[in-house]
């Protein structure tokens, strides 16, 4: 079995091993399902990563595992997400897979939001099968369970009423046929014709029509579909966010439907908590608080994305800090996975000083005493550090070397003592000096001249960065060429 015992090289957290231990013998089908009605954000990624961790734990113990991402592409559009034109109100009730892309770049509304997420999963080298629900309906995967649901309409209706404590209409149906208008909502199912795998229904205007449920001409209602999907795909494990597992929520109904109607055992479950973005609140597509997986992959490697999204325990709520706290997270992550030691803040300084020049970065790291950090992965490290500096770093960590004319202006604002200090330092610097040696020169020259170190260093930062403070000056200057320094210090 090729699926068995595959090593993914990914760390398997303890909680995932415990979940896997609680699941029986395989083969296993691990599924996570996400709506594609708007941006699929980093909070949604938590669900997929929980499922992945459990799938990996099962694979590690030698189980055969099918790991599925079920994209709810056939679901009806319910409301207009932020950024979608108001004119899309005409598509409310239509399948997301049957609505045009609001930006015209993909074949449908569903694909517009699904494809970037799929690309992020692929960039993370995730061993996952992405299934589109409209295709599953069209291929007939749901035909058997839809027939069963229609035959057991009264039982399903009774379960929903009991669990939700809400009276369902007399003519409620577990199936939503698609009318000629394209709408899945507002139609009334009149009868089931099992031998033709179809239903007869009346549309909003009272016109009679029929829909063949073996060909994707409609879908099961959401609560019923969840239980039906477990059976149709043979699901053995699925994680859920707390919105689904609350009392009277969708898992309560689906559990009873699975046992009492579909005669299928309730899959193993893990309840995860939300993640938020520090200072901005819980992630939510409908409220426009959206961090995309790609935003994360711009500032850290896939392993770090897994680590920051899952946290120590995905059953706990957690705020991701991509601002001031991020360098510390990266230092801990790099230590955990055995990357050579160099503080992330130093990489940020280097990346901002040398731009994309990897050779110059290597020199700067060597002279700063971080020889071991010069690896094949250096270009990636710089890419992450540079993007973080530009997009998330606090102002105090953003650096840009002044060009010579800007440096001249900055020097003009200093006093004579400070300028004389810079000139003397410039004469003392030599090409062989490392960061510590330069730091010594900066300090001892100030003391010798009777200049307070604080004013001396302020002069250094002024002509280099246009600020009064910055990263440790010696290692920073060591990363520049002597020409660059003397141009700005000989004032
Ligand atoms: Zn598009």
How would you describe this structure to a colleague?
α3 (109-123) links the parallel β2 (65-72) and β3. Helices cover 45% and strands 12% of the residues. It is an alpha/beta fold and 491 residues long. It is built from 21 helices and 13 strands. Strands 1-2-3 form a 3-stranded parallel sheet. The chain binds zinc ion. Zinc ion is lined by residues 101, 103, 105-106, 112.
What would you say about this model in short?
With 491 residues, this protein is α/β, with parallel strands linked by helices. It has helices at 14-22, 42-60, 109-123, 133-138, 143-151, 153-164, 222-233, 242-245, 250-260, 293-297, 302-310, 326-336, 344-354, 358-367, 378-391, 404-412, 416-428, 435-448, 453-465, 473-478, 482-489; strands at 28-35, 65-72, 129-132, 175-177, 188-193, 198-202, 208-212, 218-220, 237-241, 268-272, 275-277, 281-282, 318-320. Residues 1-8 have low confidence and may be disordered.
Q: For the residues shown, what is the average pLDDT?
A: 92
Which molecules other than protein and nucleic acid are bound? zinc ion
Residue runs with pLDDT of under 50 for 5 or more positions: 1-8
Question: Can you summarize the main beta sheet?
Answer: 3 strands, parallel
Terminal Cα separation, in Å?
72 Å
Key traits:
about 500 residues; alpha/beta; 3-stranded parallel beta sheet; elongated; binds zinc ion
Topology:
Blueprint: H1 14-22, E1 28-35, H2 42-60, E2 65-72, H3 109-123, E3 129-132, H4 133-138, H5 143-151, H6 153-164, E4 175-177, E5 188-193, E6 198-202, E7 208-212, E8 218-220, H7 222-233, E9 237-241, H8 242-245, H9 250-260, E10 268-272, E11 275-277, E12 281-282, H10 293-297, H11 302-310, E13 318-320, H12 326-336, H13 344-354, H14 358-367, H15 378-391, H16 404-412, H17 416-428, H18 435-448, H19 453-465, H20 473-478, H21 482-489
Helix pairs in contact: 1-2, 5-7, 6-9, 7-9, 13-14, 13-15, 16-19, 16-21, 17-18, 17-19
Zinc ion binds at residues 101, 103, 105-106, 112.
């Amino acid at each position: 079995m090729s699926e068995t015992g595959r090593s993914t090289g990914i760390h398997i957290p303890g909680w995932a091993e415990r979940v896997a231990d609680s699941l029986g013998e395989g083969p296993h089908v691990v599924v996570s399902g996400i709506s594609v009605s708007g941006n699929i954000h980093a909070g949604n990624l938590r669900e997929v990563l929980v499922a992945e961790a459990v799938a990996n734990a099962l694979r590690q113990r030698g189980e055969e595992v099918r790991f599925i991402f079920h994209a709810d592409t056939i679901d009806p559009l319910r409301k207009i997400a932020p950024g979608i034109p108001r004119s899309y109100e005409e598509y409310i009730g239509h399948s997301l897979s049957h609505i045009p892309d609001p930006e015209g770049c993909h074949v449908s509304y569903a694909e517009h939001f699904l494809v970037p997420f799929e690309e992020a999963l692929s960039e993370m080298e995730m061993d996952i099968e992405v299934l589109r629900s409209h295709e599953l309906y069209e291929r007939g995967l749901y035909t058997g369970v839809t027939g069963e649901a229609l035959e057991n309409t009264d039982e399903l209706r009774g379960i929903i009423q009991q669990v939700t404590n809400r009276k369902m209409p007399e003519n409620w149906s577990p199936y939503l046929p698609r009318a000629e208008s394209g709408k899945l909502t507002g139609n009334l199912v009149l009868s089931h014709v099992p031998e033709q795998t179809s239903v007869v229904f009346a549309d909003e205007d009272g016109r009679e029509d029929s829909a063949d449920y073996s060909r994707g001409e409609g879908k099961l209602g959401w609560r019923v579909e969840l239980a039906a999907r477990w059976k149709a795909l043979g699901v053995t494990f699925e994680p859920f966010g707390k919105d689904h597992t609350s009392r009277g929520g969708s898992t309560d109904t689906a559990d009873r439907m699975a046992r009492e109607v579909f005669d299928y055992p309730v899959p193993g479950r893990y309840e995860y908590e939300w993640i938020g973005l520090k200072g901005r609140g819980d992630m939510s597509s409908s409220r426009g608080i959206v961090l995309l997986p790609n935003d994360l992959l711009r500032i850290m490697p896939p392993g770090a994305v897994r680590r920051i999204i899952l946290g120590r325990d995905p059953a706990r709520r957690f705020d991701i800090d991509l601002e001031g706290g991020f360098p510390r997270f990266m230092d801990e992550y790099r230590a955990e996975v055995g990357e050579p030691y160099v503080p992330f803040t130093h990489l940020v300084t280097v990346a901002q000083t040398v731009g994309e020049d990897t050779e110059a970065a290597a020199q700067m790291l060597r002279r700063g005493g971080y020889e071991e950090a010069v690896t094949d992965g250096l270009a990636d490290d710089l890419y992450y550090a540079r993007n973080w500096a530009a997009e998330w770093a606090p102002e105090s960590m953003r650096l840009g070397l002044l060009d010579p004319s800007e440096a001249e202006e900055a020097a003009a604002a200093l006093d004579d003592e400070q300028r004389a200090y810079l000139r003397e330092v410039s004469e003392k610097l030599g090409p062989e000096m490392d960061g510590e040696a330069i730091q010594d020169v900066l300090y001892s020259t100030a003391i010798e001249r009777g200049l307070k170190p604080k004013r001396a260093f302020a002069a250094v930062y002024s002509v280099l960065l246009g600020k009064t403070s910055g990263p440790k000056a010696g290692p920073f200057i060591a990363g520049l060429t002597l020409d660059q320094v003397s141009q700005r210090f000989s004032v």
